[in-house]
Amino acid sequence: MANVFEKFNDSLSGIKEAEQTERTKEEKLAGLKKRKDEVLQGIEMNGGRTVFDDRELLDRLDRQIKELE
Fold first, then answer.
1. pLDDT tens-digit readout, 14-64
2. How far apart are CA 69 and CA 63, in angstroms?
3. Which domain of life is it from (predicted)?
4. Residue 10 clears pLDDT 70, i.e. is over it
């Protein structure tokens, strides 16, 4: 009987872990998108001119966003 409860608890902890991972993934994705928007706003405020660091950062953010989606 204890074995049944152990399996049930293992299943519950697996579900909770999956939900937490999904929530963390969603939070990270939202943070990356927010950061990308901030960079784009900074470029816009600079008259549309970018520097190498801006382009590099946007490329890196795009890659990370694609990996999470």
1. 667 767 777 788 888 888 898 888 888 888 887 877 776 778 888 888 988
2. 10
3. Bacteria
4. no
- Give SS3 for 69: coil
| Burial letters 16-41, b for 16+ CB under 10 A, else e | eeeeeeeeeeeeeeeebeeebeebee
The alpha helices in 1-69, defined as continuous H runs, are 2-45, 52-68
Task: Indicate yes or no: pTM above 0.85.
Answer: no
Which pair of structure tokens corresponds to residue 7?
A: 């399996």
